[in-house]
Amino acid sequence: MKINLRNFPDEGRDFEGEDPVEVLDVTDPEYRFESPIGYRLHGQVLGNALVVTGRVWTRVGVTCVRCLKDAQREVEVRDFVMHREITKMEDFADLTENLREDILLALPQNPLCSNDCRGLCPVCGEDLNERTCSCAKRAAVSGSKRAGAGGTGTPWSALDRIKIAKK
Question: Is residue 150 domain-resident?
């Protein structure tokens, strides 16, 4: 996104619109940008600096880290702020890199399809969002019976077998 700095009003100027997702130049297969980059910004020239504030958003397709299903998430930067020194000779200010950086920082690090996603069963691989399996019940019963003996009922049972010598 480029802002024309010529004849910029003292009270500033509002900018609203969309840019294609290609301006982000993201090739990471974990994030699939599915809508244009929307923005509602206000720019103002203060002395020899350009200050731009506002909101930026897009929709991104992700893979849930718990159940491995595809999901869509709204990515929003509510408090976009950019401050940049400008000279009298500049005709345009390019905000693309600032927009890109803020959107990339707002991407979810561990995306979920929903906040209450139960994920996959670590034993049989059943999607626990769709139905429950009996693996968890068997592991809990097996683990509670043999926890003192260091049984293999849970993934944490191996820690029960560790012997730590006290000095």
Answer: no
- Local confidence pLDDT in tens for the 167 residues of the chain: 888 888 888 888 999 999 888 888 888 888 888 889 999 999 998 888 999 999 999 999 999 999 999 999 999 999 999 999 988 888 888 888 999 899 999 998 899 999 999 988 888 888 888 988 888 566 555 555 444 444 456 777 778 888 888 87
Tokens coding 19: 């840019």
**Positions of E strands within 64-163:** 70-85, 92-94
Q: How far is CA 6 from CA 3, 23, 83, 94, 119, in A?
A: 9, 24, 18, 14, 54
Range of the domain at 31: 2-106
Q: DSSP assignment of 10-60, as one string? A: TT-EEEEEEE-GGGG----TT-EE-S-EEEEEEEEEETTEEEEEEEEEEEE
> Is residue 118 situated within a structural domain?
no
Instruction: For the beta carbon of residue 70, count every other beta carbon within 10 angstroms.
Output: 10
| Residue 148 DSSP label | T
The answer to whether residue 160 is domain-embedded is no
Does residue 129 fall inside a structural domain?
A: no
The burial of 35, by beta-carbon neighbours within 10 Å (0-12 exposed, 13-18 middle, 19 or more buried), is given as middle
